[in-house]
Specification:
The protein is built from 11 helices and 13 strands. By secondary structure, it is α/β, with parallel strands linked by helices. The strands form 3 sheets. The protein has a 6-stranded mixed beta sheet, sandwiched between helices.
């Protein structure tokens, strides 16, 4: 570890009363708090008030863990025992104040992206990856973790001012209660206002697909190349994404930034609260539905469908709402419930085939 690391106050890296109160209940006075700032295949890099340490979890933690959620994640506050100037052992994870998690691709497990985040910057660039529905997907994920979402439209130098105005108008209309920043590293547009939003001792997370410029923005905010960025493709106007792991960076102004590998596919899981917040307009309409258990798909007297059919409610917003609701319901099922659902569906298909043969 770097012997020249400056001593800091734990509050400077996000420690507050929430975590202090959690420590009070710990009887082992030999343990001290530290924050995980990076993870490398089971090896964790920690930061406390005096230095950085490399650390692993205890055998007991590994043995008792029942899921990936029981292992430390970047942003976690943990209790450690310091072995020497460079190494420590993680004994316990303090309760998480907020969690950014998703359904792992192709798996049923929950994957923690990062924890104890105050604000999540959801970044897209106006190229072929730009999509309002994807914004809603990220927003649902962030809101479910009790994290404040902020939309960032980056690389705005790629389009004309008139096209930018049109896209910005659509974003504002679709996400009325969400803060929005318009930025460009090339022209410097919006960077100053964006920098002012970063506050000392608060933790921020950057999420979005590969090539939207997350790493470049972090480098701009840091005033130095904390993260490598690849060259821009002349065909796609995208930088080759370099970040391969999650890491927390401490900026000169005291802000804390977590970078993440680009995520093309991001499944919602246990996101009912987030979906309700993002689609609050639909939830308000649902109170006027004829039936309390209305699914808003084909029922008569459905206020949501009537609003959609009359164009009072955006059709794309409605379609995305139904899609995310079904996905969240499916991903939240147990393995047994999923097998039973597939079994009933297979039985329905076989019955339909038999009926067709009889015709």
């Amino acid at each position: 570890m770097n012997k020249n690391i400056k001593k800091i106050n734990l509050k400077d890296i996000g420690y507050n009363d929430f975590f202090e109160n959690s420590c009070v209940s710990v009887a082992n006075s030999n343990l001290s708090p530290a924050r995980i700032i990076a993870e490398h295949k089971g090896l964790y890099i920690l930061r406390n008030e005096i230095s950085e340490f490399s650390a692993k979890i205890t055998g007991k933690m590994m043995f008792t863990a029942s899921s990936r959620e029981d292992f430390p994640a970047v942003g976690d506050w943990v209790l450690i025992k310091i072995l020497d100037e460079e190494q420590a052992i993680i004994h316990e994870i303090l309760p998480r104040k907020t969690v950014l998690a998703r359904k792992s691709a192709g798996k049923s497990d929950t994957q923690i992206i990062a924890s104890n985040i105050d604000t999540a910057f959801i970044i897209q660039s106006p190229d072929r990856d730009y999509n309002l529905n994807r914004f809603e997907r990220y927003l649902s994920l962030v809101e479910s973790g009790n994290i404040k979402p902020v939309i960032v439209l980056n690389k705005t130098d790629l389009i004309s001012e008139s096209d930018l105005d049109i896209r910005l108008s659509k974003i504002k209309n679709r996400f009325k209660n969400t803060d929005i920043y318009v930025t460009s590293i090339v022209t410097g547009k919006g960077i100053s206002d964006f920098q002012k939003s970063i506050k000392q001792g608060f933790t921020y997370c950057f999420i979005g697909s590969s090539g939207v410029g997350k790493s470049s923005i972090i480098n701009m905010l840091a005033g130095k190349n904390l993260i490598k960025t690849g060259e821009i493709s002349s065909h796609t106007n995208r930088g080759k994404h370099i970040t391969a792991h999650r890491e927390l960076f401490i900026l000169e102004n005291g802000g804390l930034l977590i970078d993440n590998p680009g995520m093309r596919e991001i499944g919602v899981l246990d996101s009912e609260i987030g979906i309700k917040n993002v689609f609050s307009e639909i939830y308000e309409l649902s109170k006027k539905c004829k039936f309390l258990d209305c699914t808003h798909i084909n029922e008569s007297g459905c206020a949501v469908l009537m609003a959609t059919n009359s164009c009072a409610l955006d059709k794309d917003k409605y379609d995305n709402y139904i899609k995310l609701l079904k996905e969240n319901e499916y991903n939240s099922m147990t393995k047994f419930e999923k097998r039973e659902k597939h079994r009933k569906f297979d039985k329905l298909v076989k019955t339909a085939k038999k009926q067709i043969k009889k015709i």
